[in-house]
User: Which sequence fits this backbone?
């Protein structure tokens, strides 16, 4: 064996044995977290500090997955996605490391994935093919000599979207200011203005130096064949000798410049008043100190965790900003703490800083409340223990990230996996003033501090984009005809590569499973239904939950009109976030943290084909079994006693919600455009728009304006009236995830707590409207777009296994190649759900018209499908992968309930899996006409760049400014 076992260490909190191996020749280390989890994981990480803003580490992360020595297809990564039962496959670039994690519950599949990734990172094809850098990074794009010259590239466009976010800009400035003489000053993802400086020679040189076994750390996790895994690693480690090992332990020294004022872009014409950002940022320590890092998380919760937390309260009451928050930042090796004010005036910077330091001094004089400290520690303990048992997230990948956060800086690899000793030590020290001492040391008396102002500037990005385009045309104008033709030739060579299919021989190199490895088994049980209360039901998912009760109160709102749904959405968002008649927000938060893992409320909308949506106002809670009584009492309190007339508290919460929604626009607008388009056809999606979409966002802005101008009484009166209307035992049902022998206890406690509710007659179920059918565009300060197209297709396209398989093909072949690879978008998706919806959306897309044309050309693509038996099997496997993701007990219960309420039942999933396994090529090609009919009418919605939207104005019936 080429590896030596050098250490074993049992990890109680994650029930694993750590086994640390050394590869003597290279010095590389491998950690196996050995346990009985069948969801095996592999992560290989390289220390990759950037040396400029050219995005080299990020572009290499993309490019190694574009073919390798053993697997020479254009994109082995995608081919594996098509034909793997993976539970996680990705690659990620951080500020100082790049990681390549995979996970699978199938041992054979796991080994296949590991093998493809190892070859990709150690033997990539881009050394001999500069078109890979051109595609994934950047290139001059000129299809014809007379065209305008533009930049194109997947990472180039991804980062145009990412760096347009002021929150991302602020984070980048924090690192630049705190650590200006280190690699943390650079944006590892790349700035578009610098990405275009990257050369092929630099690209190869960086990979050669940094992607060596000596500079790697590997984490294996789960119930796996360790001899096979180490043999696979040995194939790439043996014979490589000692390579460069990057030291990420940078010298920490205070910066000479402590103040920065910069600007970020609003859309042209937007009012910049009170839309600035302010931040105070301290260097606080090193990531290898887990005790300090955990303590700072607790301090942040105590100081800034809710609107009555002392520091947050002081800033909000001084009207410093619309939203304020604190954040503990793991920058990499160093850590920092930031206090951020969003939507403020940069002129308030001095006042902002003064209030922060005055409030911190007051905290030190008063001392932190012991009950609040214990509550914060209890909540953190609950979160960490629940995470350790949850199967919905890839535990092995998460554990790998925790290991790397200390290990790659020569720290203890186990320290972040052993949270109980840290929490015990913190609890003991906190009783003796440790948290106050940290506030004094790390914040009040710490002059390693920078302050940042980010000023809103309307039209900034448009001006920058115009200059880039003008510079490109000026550059092209100085080229001679041969040079222009060379650009055209390279562009056409790239397009030819993108359009050329992989050879059968190359495809045959990709390992995949066989039909014998597949099964239609289903690990999901139906919910049990019994009577509850006067007219309600009790739904139970009978599952082992490690002593945690998951309880939801379902309140029937089927008789309430759609006009009140925005108010219902706000009502839900406020529950547990504003004071009650019995407790201040501080005391309420303390009780919730002491006795529960969290309380929340929301609106659940279940679509049943051919019927009105089933709609519920839902209050959710989770707690240890011993805390059931306290949890239900608190659920009752936030439901029946919330102070709906507390206008100041409501305004503060609304402003934070507006801020949160704007982050969704920056990072999740693809989901927004799909839902918005369907809302024009379907009542269920229209209601979703009212409680969580763009319509709800506009409602929040209007409510904010009313409250700020002393016109909020009608809003608070409506909230109170709705809360009173919901407090009706005839509306009440419950949903419990936990073992059935506790159900009677759960039912009895809920019944007792709500026994005093007075019955009120409910009205008949309402018939809900849909939105107005129209094509819409929403302008934001983005340089890229999110392009959506949706239509209801139930009459034309029956949901079945064959459509599921076709969806996999569309995502991983048609849309991937046309929207991402050739179009330059960061991503594109397709979804066909059981209720008949067809949905397309792109992510960080430089195009609009071309992407829409691609969506509409789907039927022609299906007409021309030509699949070998091996191709078809590959897509069947990839489809089953998405149907077989591991789930926690709670998520299994939620899924089973949804199937029950939508009239399908869990057996329908087994039927779909059997249909998937039986799919033939003819079944898929036969769907072309159904898609053609479905796409005869549709709605398109775009969120994105103002200039591009205006250039495509004839595509839209309405164009709006979003923010």
Assistant:
């Amino acid at each position: 064996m080429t590896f030596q076992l050098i250490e074993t260490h049992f990890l109680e909190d994650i029930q694993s044995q750590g086994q640390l191996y050394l590869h003597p020749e290279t010095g590389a280390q491998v950690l196996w977290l050995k346990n009985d989890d069948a969801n095996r994981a592999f992560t290989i990480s390289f220390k990759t500090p950037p040396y400029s803003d050219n995005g080299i580490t990020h572009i290499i992360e993309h490019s190694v997955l574009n073919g390798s020595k053993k697997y020479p297809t254009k994109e082995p990564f995608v081919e594996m996605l098509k034909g793997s039962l993976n539970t996680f496959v990705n690659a990620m670039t951080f500020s100082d490391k790049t990681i390549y994690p995979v996970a699978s519950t199938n041992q054979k599949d796991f080994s296949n994935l590991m093998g493809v990734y190892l070859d990709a990172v150690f033997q990539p094809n881009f050394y001999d093919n500069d078109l890979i850098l051109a595609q994934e990074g950047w290139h001059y794009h000129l299809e014809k000599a007379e065209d305008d010259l533009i930049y194109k590239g997947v990472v180039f466009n991804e980062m145009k979207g990412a760096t347009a976010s002021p929150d991302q800009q602020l984070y980048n400035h924090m690192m630049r200011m705190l650590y200006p003489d280190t690699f943390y000053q650079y944006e590892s993802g790349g700035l578009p203005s610098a990405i275009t400086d990257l050369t092929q020679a630099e690209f190869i040189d960086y990979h050669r130096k940094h992607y060596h076994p000596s500079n790697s750390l590997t984490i294996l996790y789960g119930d796996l064949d360790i001899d096979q895994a180490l043999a696979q690693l040995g194939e790439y480690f043996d014979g490589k000798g000692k390579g460069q090992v990057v030291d990420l332990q940078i010298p920490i020294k205070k910066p000479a410049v402590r103040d920065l004022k910069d600007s970020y872009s609003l859309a042209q014409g937007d009012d910049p008043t009170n839309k600035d950002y302010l931040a105070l940022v301290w260097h606080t320590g090193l990531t290898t100190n887990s005790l300090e890092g955990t303590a700072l998380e607790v301090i942040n919760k105590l100081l800034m965790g809710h609107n009555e937390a002392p520091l947050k309260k002081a800033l909000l009451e001084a009207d410093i900003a619309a939203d304020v928050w604190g954040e503990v930042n793991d920058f990499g090796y160093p850590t920092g703490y930031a206090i951020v004010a969003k939507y403020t005036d940069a002129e308030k910077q001095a006042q902002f800083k003064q209030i922060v330091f005055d409030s911190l001094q007051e905290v030190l004089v008063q001392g932190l409340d012991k009950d609040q400290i214990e509550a914060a520690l209890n909540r953190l303990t609950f979160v960490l223990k629940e995470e350790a048992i949850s199967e919905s997230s890839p535990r092995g990948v998460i554990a790998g990230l925790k290991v790397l956060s200390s290990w790659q800086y020569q720290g203890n690899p186990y320290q972040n996996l052993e949270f109980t000793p840290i929490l015990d030590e913190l609890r003991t020290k906190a009783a003796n003033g440790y948290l106050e001492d940290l506030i004094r040391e790390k914040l009040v008396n710490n002059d390693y501090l920078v302050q940042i102002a980010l000023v809103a500037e309307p039209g900034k990005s448009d001006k920058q984009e115009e200059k880039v385009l003008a510079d490109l045309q000026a550059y092209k104008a100085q080229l001679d005809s041969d040079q222009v033709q060379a650009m055209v030739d390279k562009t056409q060579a790239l397009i030819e590569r993108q359009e050329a299919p992989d050879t059968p021989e190359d495809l045959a190199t990709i390992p995949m499973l066989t039909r014998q490895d597949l099964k239609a088994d289903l690990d999901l049980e139906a919910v049990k239904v019994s009577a509850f209360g006067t007219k309600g039901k009790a739904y139970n998912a009978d599952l082992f939950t490690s002593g945690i009760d998951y309880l939801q109160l379902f309140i029937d709102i089927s008789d309430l009109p759609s006009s009140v749904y925005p108010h219902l959405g706000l009502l839900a968002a406020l529950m547990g976030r504003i004071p009650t008649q019995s407790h201040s927000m501080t005391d309420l938060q303390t009780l919730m943290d002491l006795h529960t893992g969290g309380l929340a409320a929301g609106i659940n909308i279940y679509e049943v084909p051919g019927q009105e949506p089933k709609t519920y106002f839902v209050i959710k809670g989770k707690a240890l079994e011993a805390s059931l009584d306290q949890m239900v009492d608190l659920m009752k309190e936030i439901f029946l006693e919330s102070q709906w007339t507390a206008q100041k508290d409501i305004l503060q919460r609304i402003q934070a919600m507006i801020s949160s929604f704007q982050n969704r626009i920056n990072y999740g607008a693809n989901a927004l455009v799909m839902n918005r388009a369907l809302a024009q056809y379907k009542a269920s999606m229209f209601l979703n728009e009212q409680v969580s979409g763009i319509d709800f966002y506009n409602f929040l802005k209007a409510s904010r304006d009313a409250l700020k101008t002393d016109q909020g009484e009608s809003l608070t009166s409506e909230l109170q009236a709705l809360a009173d209307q919901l407090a009706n035992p005839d509306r009440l049902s419950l949903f419990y995830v936990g073992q059935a022998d506790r159900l009677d206890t759960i039912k009895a406690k809920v019944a007792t707590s709500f026994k005093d509710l007075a019955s009120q007659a409910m009205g008949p179920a309402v018939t809900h409207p849909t939105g107005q059918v129209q094509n819409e565009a929403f302008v934001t300060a983005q340089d890229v777009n999110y392009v959506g197209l949706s239509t209801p297709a139930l009459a034309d396209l029956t949901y079945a296994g064959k459509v599921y398989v076709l969806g996999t093909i569309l995502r991983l072949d048609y849309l991937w190649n046309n929207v991402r690879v050739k179009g330059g978008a960061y991503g594109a998706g397709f979804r066909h759900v059981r209720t008949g919806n067809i949905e397309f959306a792109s992510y960080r897309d430089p195009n609009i018209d071309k992407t829409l044309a691609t969506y509409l050309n789907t039927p022609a693509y299906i007409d021309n499908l030509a699949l070998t038996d091996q191709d078809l099997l590959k897509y069947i496997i990839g489809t089953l992968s998405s149907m077989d993701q591991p789930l926690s007990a709670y998520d299994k219960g939620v899924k089973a309930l949804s199937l029950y309420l939508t009239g399908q039942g869990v057996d329908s999933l087994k039927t779909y899996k059997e249909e998937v396994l039986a799919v033939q090529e003819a079944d898929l090609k036969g769907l072309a006409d159904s898609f053609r009919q479905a796409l005869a009418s549709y709605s398109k919605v775009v969120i994105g760049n103002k200039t591009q939207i205006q250039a495509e104005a004839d595509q839209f019936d309405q164009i709006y400014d979003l923010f």
Remarks:
- The CA atoms of residues 780 and 944 lie 5 Å apart.
- The chain has 36 helices and 27 strands.
- The mean pLDDT is 95.
- The two ends are 60 Å apart (CA to CA).
